[in-house]
Write a structure and sequence with these properties.
Helices cover 36% and strands 29% of the residues. The chain is built from 3 helices and 7 strands; from the N terminus they run βααββββαββ. A hairpin with a 2-residue loop joins β4 and β5.
């Protein structure tokens, strides 16, 4: 059974709508931040921080793992929400990385995050 986490846009969010292209830009931004951190540390941190290849389909983004510790994460967009899906074959590494990405997305959007374990985190001013 697949696990899902959802970032909802609320009236207090900084974004009004979300598209697949915006999600891809956020993933690239996350990768660039990791790369800059690696440059400061003189270490290839980007490879460890984002061990995925980005594959864009017409209705979703697939993050396909580059090594055995990572399998795949799916990113889908629905109305005013972004959903991260861990397929049945997902590893613990995938779940940890998906949690990091969800928190990053929610912070950038100032949204409401429903985590994989059912808990809710609020990234907007209430």
């Amino acid at each position: 059974m697949a696990h899902t986490a959802t970032i909802e846009l609320v009236p207090a969010s900084t974004w009004e709508t979300v598209t697949l292209e915006q999600c891809k830009q956020l993933l690239e931004q996350y990768r660039n931040i990791a790369q800059k951190t690696g440059e400061q540390l003189a270490w290839d941190y980007a490879q460890s921080a984002f061990p995925y290849d980005i594959v864009t389909k017409e209705d979703r983004i697939l993050l396909v793992g580059k090594d055995d510790r990572y399998h795949m994460i799916e990113c889908c967009v629905h109305d005013r929400a972004v959903q991260f899906v861990l397929p049945k074959q997902a590893t613990h590494g995938d779940k940890g990385k998906a949690n990091e990405l969800c928190k990053f997305f929610a912070k950038q959007m100032a949204g409401k995050l429903h985590l994989f374990n059912g808990r809710i985190m609020y990234y907007y001013k209430r």
